């Protein structure tokens, strides 16, 4: 295994939106930075799972797709490519604090030395929650899908969406002008999405199949036949569609944090007002962390990044003054 001699000021573990912005802000503070991302490219879950999803809660962007948001973040990073090392397709497997207060990280490819760490791994490794009924797995990726890479894949089709949360509601609204017909299947009458989105959904042409559970899914002609049963009742009906998009959320695994010996509460990293853990030099931001009043939004993670970076920059270089304005790049 390769062992590096270079000592980074900061290693950002996780290359999703929050990690990307943290690295950008750190370069604005003239820190020597590396990002380590286990996926083959930056962008995290947003790039891998939601490139076509509309994101509305990032200040100053308006309605932006996941792919466009990641492209904008990449454009920011490109401004400060000097002093920034990107290590994609590489996972951190070990973390050790050395006697001098620095850290040795072991990855799947090398050992690397860093003065501070920002953990931005979101919910960790993720996998979609599957349909709770047996079905032919050969249908996955065609008639049954868990991800949407391109809305045009659904153009002119009859689409059913299973789920009742924010993502299911958002996908229904995004597909309404593209698909021939959209059905949203949920086991309750009420949806858990953002109030404005739910109001838009109820005023749309999306057919709300509530309160129904899916009891069977089978191939039918070139599409699917979905058997529905009313929740807590006996009434049944069938739905013929071209595609079923399953959106029951994701199961996340951030057990890596526990393996590193980091302080956790309900599997989330405990941080203070500076986003620092009880281990000096290790910080956390985004969905990986918890503190009183924590909100799991990309926008919240973007706000946490400067708090962490400014604090660790002062710890590393106490002689430097913190910039008064976000446009300043001088140290």
Automatic annotation (TrEMBL):
<feature type="binding site">
    <location>
        <position position="50"/>
    </location>
    <ligand>
        <name>FAD</name>
    </ligand>
</feature>
<dbReference type="GO" id="GO:0050661">
    <property type="term" value="F:NADP binding"/>
</dbReference>
<dbReference type="GO" id="GO:0050660">
    <property type="term" value="F:flavin adenine dinucleotide binding"/>
</dbReference>
<feature type="binding site">
    <location>
        <position position="327"/>
    </location>
    <ligand>
        <name>FAD</name>
    </ligand>
</feature>
<feature type="domain" description="FAD/NAD(P)-binding">
    <location>
        <begin position="8"/>
        <end position="296"/>
    </location>
</feature>
<feature type="binding site">
    <location>
        <position position="37"/>
    </location>
    <ligand>
        <name>FAD</name>
    </ligand>
</feature>
<comment type="subunit">
    <text>Homodimer.</text>
</comment>
<dbReference type="Pfam" id="PF07992">
    <property type="entry name" value="Pyr_redox_2"/>
</dbReference>
<feature type="binding site">
    <location>
        <position position="287"/>
    </location>
    <ligand>
        <name>FAD</name>
    </ligand>
</feature>
<dbReference type="InterPro" id="IPR023753">
    <property type="entry name" value="FAD/NAD-binding_dom"/>
</dbReference>
<feature type="binding site">
    <location>
        <position position="18"/>
    </location>
    <ligand>
        <name>FAD</name>
    </ligand>
</feature>
<keyword id="KW-0285">Flavoprotein</keyword>
<dbReference type="GO" id="GO:0004324">
    <property type="term" value="F:ferredoxin-NADP+ reductase activity"/>
</dbReference>
<keyword id="KW-0521">NADP</keyword>
<feature type="binding site">
    <location>
        <position position="45"/>
    </location>
    <ligand>
        <name>FAD</name>
    </ligand>
</feature>
<keyword id="KW-0560">Oxidoreductase</keyword>
<dbReference type="InterPro" id="IPR050097">
    <property type="entry name" value="Ferredoxin-NADP_redctase_2"/>
</dbReference>
<protein>
    <recommendedName>
        <fullName>Ferredoxin--NADP reductase</fullName>
        <ecNumber>1.18.1.2</ecNumber>
    </recommendedName>
</protein>
<keyword id="KW-0274">FAD</keyword>
<feature type="binding site">
    <location>
        <position position="126"/>
    </location>
    <ligand>
        <name>FAD</name>
    </ligand>
</feature>
<dbReference type="InterPro" id="IPR036188">
    <property type="entry name" value="FAD/NAD-bd_sf"/>
</dbReference>
<feature type="binding site">
    <location>
        <position position="92"/>
    </location>
    <ligand>
        <name>FAD</name>
    </ligand>
</feature>
<comment type="similarity">
    <text>Belongs to the ferredoxin--NADP reductase type 2 family.</text>
</comment>
<dbReference type="InterPro" id="IPR022890">
    <property type="entry name" value="Fd--NADP_Rdtase_type_2"/>
</dbReference>
